[in-house]
Design goal:
This protein has two domains: about 110 residues, no CATH class; about 60 residues, no CATH class. Helix content is about 45%, strand content about 15%. The chain has seven helices and five strands. Strand 2, helix 3 and strand 3 form a beta-alpha-beta unit.
Length: about 180
């Protein structure tokens, strides 16, 4: 899906239906909207709020009307909602609006929080390396994110796995690995 085009048209669609929706989004869709990356993605991950049923129905209708976007059934979803329990209590004070249309307003996490979620995805799924590289984290940012990412899994091998992935990322970014 070409996120920007789909969201622009979805905004018009929602407006014509007299609906509106505000959400905090993360993942590749947020990075595309912010022009950090330009790749296509399969979905828009909404951290919060829980997507209202009327918006989910509108998203399904939009998907059927616009096959050119190649939208998946759950192209807009609350998949990452469980991350809410892991973010610091004050994360909402750092959100930033990244898309403001007539009926659709999308925000994303502040840089440090967004970077943490993307680094966790990179270590967990092994397919977010390019997105992390595009975010160009400094060595200091990576050091600050390590403890948070290392604490996201109870597997005793997880912290070492995270260290290995962070070291690989640092190397690819030209940072000292230490």
């Amino acid at each position: 899906m070409k996120v920007k085009e789909a969201l622009l048209q979805f905004d018009v669609f929602l407006n014509k239906k007299g609906l509106s929706f505000e959400a905090v989004v993360i993942g590749a869709a947020a990075l595309v909207v912010m022009d950090v990356i330009s790749r296509e993605t399969i979905d828009v991950d909404c951290l919060e709020p829980k997507i209202p049923e009327e918006i989910l129905k509108a998203a399904a209708e939009f998907r059927n009307i616009h096959p050119e976007h190649k939208l998946t059934e759950k192209w807009i979803n609350n998949g990452p909602h469980s991350l809410l329990r892991d973010l610091s209590k004050d994360w909402r004070t750092r959100i930033q609006i990244i898309f403001s249309g007539k009926a659709l307003t999308l925000s994303t996490l502040g840089r440090a929080d967004l970077l943490k979620t993307k680094l966790f995805a990179y270590c967990d799924r092994d397919d977010d390396l390019m997105d992390c590289l595009a975010m160009k984290p400094t060595s200091a940012e990576l050091d600050r994110c390590y403890e948070w990412v290392a604490a996201r899994d109870a597997n005793p091998m997880w912290p070492e796995h995270v260290r290995k992935y962070f070291d690989l990322l640092k190397k690819r970014l030209g940072h000292d690995v230490g």
